Amino acid sequence: MTLKRALPALTTVRETVTRALGLLLAFALSACAAEDQATSPQEVRKLAGSPQAQQSRQKTEDQLRATVNAYAKDTPLALGLVAVDDICAGGKARELVFQDGDDGYKIRCHLQITAFYGADPHRIADVLDGILAVGDRAQSKPNPLDTIPFHHGADGRSPLVDYYRGTGPNPNSPSALEPAYLYAGQQRLSWDTLRSSQKTLVSDDVCLGENPPAVRCVREPAGRTVQDIRKQYGMVFKLELSPVDYYIVSKKGKTIVAR
Question: Each residue of 212-225: b (16+ CB within 10 Å) or e?
Fold first, then answer.
């Protein structure tokens, strides 16, 4: 092939290669731009309402409610109010400084449940003893943290119960404030104090907004308040279950759901 005849062919090949490289560069820039951008509210709602998100949401809520119901069924506590806070947040734009990881996902959904129970303040020692007894039995289960993780000591006694019976000192120290909470695993149980000057440490729960499926705020029964429970029973116990991330979609397309 002569040089004169080869030049047009070379030009054609060069143009083809240039176009291909241009397309690859455009795709790369588009992908980078998508990863750098914050998730739009429209996409958050679309992902939050997807069948996979809904299935994982329901599974997580059922598991947390099972723990709430275990206290109502097996302990002296009377369930008065259940608060469900379910939030799906979109990822942020690419963070160049002060990185906290919020730019790495398209959406992250977490669900938290708080339950309020009523109890007779004159029987608080028996109430606490009953809760710990259920926790003792739960230790024999494969995963006791799914139910009640609080229990008596190895000798079958509890300094906390003894304190409220008037047969033992403050389990923290003689100069410490009145003990008013138990904490273990993913649960925190607190209650109104009886010997402190501030009697009502458990306060009302506030619903911050409602915009399903991205934001859900459920209060059951509706209109019921913590003060209503206190008036009915005398004192309030509050069970806080740690938030559970049940649905995450990364900007690279990886999906993580609750197990």
Answer: ebbbbbebeeeeee
